[in-house]
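User: Quick sanity check before I run a bigger batch. Here is a single chain. Can you write out its predicted 3D structure?
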Amino acid sequence: MLPSTLSVPENIRALFTAYRTCELTTFTKTGMLSVVPVVAIWDDEAETIVFATAVAYPQKAFNIRRNPHLSLLFSDPVGANLEHESPVLVQGIGKITEDLEAKRLTKLGPKFAQKIPDQNYHLSPIMKRLMDWYYVRLMIDVTPEYIFNWKTGDYHQTPDVIGEKRTSRLQEKTQTQSAPMWKSDWAGIIAKYPTAVVSCAFGTDFPYSYRSSIQLDSTRKICLLEPLADGFPAAQKHTQYSATLLFHAFSASMKMEAMSQFQLQGYITITEDAVEFTPIGFIPGLGSRHFDKPQGFEQFTAFPAMVSSGKRKTKEYLQKRTFQSKGSEHDA
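Assistant: Done. Predicted structure follows.
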């Protein structure tokens, strides 16, 4: 991986370290956006941002292989111990390498461990045996191309930008094939999240992401988002752009049982008065228990089922080396 041509300031690198998680946005096979939380670190030697994914869960890697243009938003202050919020958006190029023997993961382990202090099940001999498949990894290096920093934490303000100025390539109107969807119980669920991550394809090669509070308009079956900074990014009014909302939460301990997430896929339309999001799809996330919480025997068997599935998928990957087979594509 070539080092970044950008000179990443020390204060920005410090923010990469401070934020426990960041929100990764990639393009799916259909051209929609996938937004998931990941734990990422800055690698001083490679001069890249690094995160990993188990080969049992390779979807984000398949998305990046298909289109390496991605974004990482460092924005959730939980556990960051910051004096004030100072979110950072990185737009960059991703490259995937295999780390099947966990050599690089072991080398970078102390940095990752600082962000997930209570996920120490790998220290237990029993859990280490059960979860050995989880450490067969694909490593993703992100070379920053553009960096945006909202120093005051206010997304309504124009951020400081690091990177050469570029010409925006505005997209044509999205031809949405799916009909809008709406669930009556969304109001109670979304109310549990103060904000959501909004990722949108506003016409450049890279996704653009920020945080916004969400208001529901049940009559029109849309979500109302906070306005963007004036003229930033460049976007045409009354034009539909592919977009995804990520709702996720975690505790400072980063324990799995305290995590929850789900995505709403759809499109954004900017009007004179508002930023409107029309949902067309719902994607539950790992650890999400909002809609179908396991009960009784199902709850008791959830962990063994996850271990069994992870071991099976890892074995299949190692047998087929799916990621290196260009004929294999996963639907997003």
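The CA atoms of residues 69 and 93 lie 5 Å apart.

User: Great, the batch can go ahead then.
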